[in-house]
Amino acid sequence: MNQDHDAVGRWRPSPLLYASAALHVSAGAAALATPQVWPWALGAVAANHIALAAAGLWPRSRLLGPNWTRLPASNGTAAAVAITIDDGPEPEVTPQVLAQLAAHRACATFFCVGERVLRYPDLAQEIVRRGHTIENHSQSHRHNFSLLGPGAIHAEVSQAQDSIQRVTGNVPKFFRAPAGLRNPFLDPVLLRLKLRLASWTRRGFDTVNCNPDAVLRRLTTSLHAGDILLLHDGHAARGRGGKPVILDVLPRLLDTLNGAGLVPVTLRSTLP
Ligand SMILES: [Zn+2]
């Protein structure tokens, strides 16, 4: 499965985008040549816009461009699984997450928000110092990210890239859209900034579900090598006694992985 653009870094529109462009041209030509067909042409174009929007609202879709939903098969570790932790750094949660990972000698990928990296630079540096990686989760995690135009999308992605590099010295290689939602303007921006889009194989919905058992079950049902799992240190739902759900889930998840002979790795370590 080819998960990336070609090696020389040219942007190649996905088949859906090619088909959409062709549809717009042919619908316009048909409506000009035969005025009676214009309602049908208009309807076809409207349906196509709905299809494009739907593709962008489906986080694991590859219809708008390459998207990692699993680790590449040739990832170097047959038993590898990637734990990804989004929306931090968060001073009330991230230090405990780091301690839990250290207790299990496990590493993870943190998709951090650029503004939060600037606000908590010591915490961002500590994440990297402990052998984890920080990747790009946009500068301000705007909830309307999938509605932004090309300029605003470029600003959100490139500013986070600069923030993370300035604070940690490392340049992110992966991007994850806020809530996984995007639109056709994102893919060319990622290519220009040499970023790969990463979503996930399974997520625990741990920003809304405050039951750690249910979150763990979601993450570990049909667990396999190559899975990319999603948890949150920022925006974490709170369980019993106000405890962030990730803190109840992560140690049990790490035990489960260990028991299944699976090894947590960073996304970056699996790049070819
Ligand atoms: Zn997020």
Give a short summary of the structure.
The chain is α/β, with parallel strands linked by helices.
- N-to-C span: 13 Å
Q: What characteristic shape results from the CA principal axes?
A: elongated
Tally of DSSP β-strands = 8
Tell me the count of domains. Answer: 2
**Count of helical segments?**
9
Biggest β-sheet description: 6 strands, parallel
Task: Assign the CATH superfamily of the largest domain.
Answer: Glycoside hydrolase/deacetylase
Assigned CATH architecture of the largest domain: Alpha-Beta Barrel
State which percent range the strand residues make up.
Answer: 5-15%
> Might you state the CATH topology name of the largest domain?
TIM Barrel
Q: Which small-molecule species are bound to the chains here?
A: zinc ion
Multimeric status of the protein? single chain
The assigned structural class equals alpha/beta
CATH class of the largest domain: Alpha Beta
Average pLDDT, to the nearest integer?
89
